[in-house]
């Protein structure tokens, strides 16, 4: 009888892709994959270790598996991902019920690790980070109509607050031909939306030829006949070139949506973050993007409470958010991360101040979203249907303005008995707006 393996994958979409590749390896080796880890022989927690909240979530999931193991539901627990890579032997030392801890470079050896723990061995495996595979098959965990396409691994930006270079290593671009080949295969299987991801997608190709190959990659992806939509995430502001703007503007398959993690707008704060730019340059970039790409949706991520952030710095950030009126925005309070330069900076702010400033930014964004959403009432929008929500008795989906898991939704009812198909693009007449989401009625075909 085949050994049953289940996985809980936490954190970002990039970590999700790593987990999908491990699942493919296990299936090829003859293991049986189960969706509910409670019914597995071996449970894998593919952890996140980026910020404190994510680390705590990973630990809580491990402790829940420890409970299942003590009850006899599962036989072994394996910890992979960023937490395993970052803390290595500390994980097993603190959580002795764990049977194996595998750094990211050991993902390719996951089958051998499972065989080892089933023989009652305690396994710790920490190869070099650059042994993490960039290419290979995967068992997709997303719905059939969209997928993440990871084009690079690691990061060379060295932002002072960020532990990713310590965890994931140097920036490594995936070969373009391999990306194109995977996209062709997946589009043949019915995938409609490809979401381009990396720690810094705009840097793609710099390590291969000295300049960004992202525009060329997007053009080549657009030539795939059955590929419908391309969404681009994680473009650093200083690397958004005229060439990239032209591609987004001119290629119909590239959604008019871009994710730009700005973090702040105050020049002195950005300098301490080892980031480039200031309010003037960021404002110019946003205006340029909106001028040259009609209908563009801009998503950004900001941080409050970075060491040394003064009231004046925060006021500048708050004014900037109001002035720019971002279509989508997330804000996080600064988290002290061990072994990063920012952790040792003077003028650390207290948690209450950091969280208070975060709440102010999100309250501002909430009020602006109400204004933005009200403009859609009475209009018809194309919505990618994603499912049915039983509590509200509504169908729901996303417009081109919304990336999965992080952005808004459109909830809609049907009249006359017509039911949409999941993965189908339908027309919805918007009748009401919520804080972030929209409500509407399905229109007849």
Give a description of the structure.
The chain is of the alpha/beta class and 445 residues long. The chain folds into three domains: 128 residues, Rossmann fold, CATH 3.40.50.12160; 228 residues, pyruvate-formate lyase- activating enzyme (Alpha-Beta Horseshoe); 63 residues, Nucleic acid-binding proteins (OB fold (Dihydrolipoamide Acetyltransferase, E2P), Beta Barrel), CATH 2.40.50.140. Helices cover 35% and strands 23% of the residues. It has 14 helices and 19 strands. It has a six-stranded parallel β-sheet with strand order 2-1-3-4-5-6, sandwiched between helices. A six-stranded parallel β-sheet has the order 7-10-11-12-13-14. A five-stranded mixed β-barrel has the order 15-16-17-19-18. Strand 15 and strand 16 form a beta hairpin. Helix 13 runs parallel beside helix 14. The longest helix has 24 residues. The protein is globular, with a radius of gyration of 23 Å. The mean pLDDT is 92.
